[in-house]
User: Which sequence fits this backbone?
């Protein structure tokens, strides 16, 4: 099931990117452009959700090497990030939620959305890594623009912008909302009360965040069953 879900998301990501990079944006009205950007953002977020499940070993539980290979692949498609660093930081987050050792924690100072988001991103991409990522993105952009004649506007709207918006979506629903208030539970996390469809649309059920911390072995699509079990 994990491989099947990962395959669907990767195929959707590749097909939507290819189609939108080739589209003539002058033929799109504003509404369709917004829908396309939001759709690309949602699929982009799906790549990270698959990588997150791979970090937890639940994409291919029976084959650890294949599981992490898939995780590395989807992270590479998502952005030039280190899968190993993501894994280390994420397990620290699970081990020390809401504590000083938690790389996702606001540290008592960076509590506002903007400051916390900036600290959150800095915890995963340091100064040197930001430069390396920028150079990689520029190189990829030039390859598509010069080598395949893809307009810069298409690259910005349908490739770069969804990466940024996706990171904000993941932070909002996967860190800020679940962990912003002090919670009297070991996970320092609270779940949203969104219905199933809305929870899926916001961030692939990761609004059910207490359940994720309580049952880290569950893939994202099984979190609703854990939510119902504990409601």
Assistant:
């Amino acid at each position: 099931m994990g491989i099947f879900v990962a395959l669907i998301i990767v195929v959707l990501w590749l097909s939507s990117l290819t189609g939108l990079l080739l589209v003539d944006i002058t033929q799109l009205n504003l509404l369709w452009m917004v829908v396309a950007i939001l759709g690309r953002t949602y699929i982009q977020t799906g790549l990270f959700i698959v990588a997150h499940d791979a970090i937890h070993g639940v994409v291919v539980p029976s084959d650890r090497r294949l599981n992490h290979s898939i995780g590395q692949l989807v992270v590479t498609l998502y952005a030039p990030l280190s899968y190993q660093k993501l894994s280390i930081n994420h397990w620290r987050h699970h081990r020390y939620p809401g504590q000083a050792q938690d790389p996702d924690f606001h540290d008592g100072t960076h509590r506002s959305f903007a400051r916390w988001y900036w600290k959150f991103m800095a915890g995963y991409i340091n100064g040197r890594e930001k430069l390396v990522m920028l150079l990689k993105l520029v190189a990829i952009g030039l390859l598509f623009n010069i080598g395949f004649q893809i307009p810069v506007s298409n690259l910005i709207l349908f490739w770069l912008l969804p990466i940024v918006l996706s990171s904000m979506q993941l932070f909002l629903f996967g860190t800020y909302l679940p962990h912003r208030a002090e919670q009297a539970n070991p996970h320092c996390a609270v779940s949203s009360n969104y219905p199933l469809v809305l929870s899926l649309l916001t961030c692939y059920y990761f609004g059910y965040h207490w359940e994720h911390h309580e049952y880290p072995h569950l893939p994202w699509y099984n979190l609703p069953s854990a939510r119902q079990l504990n409601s």
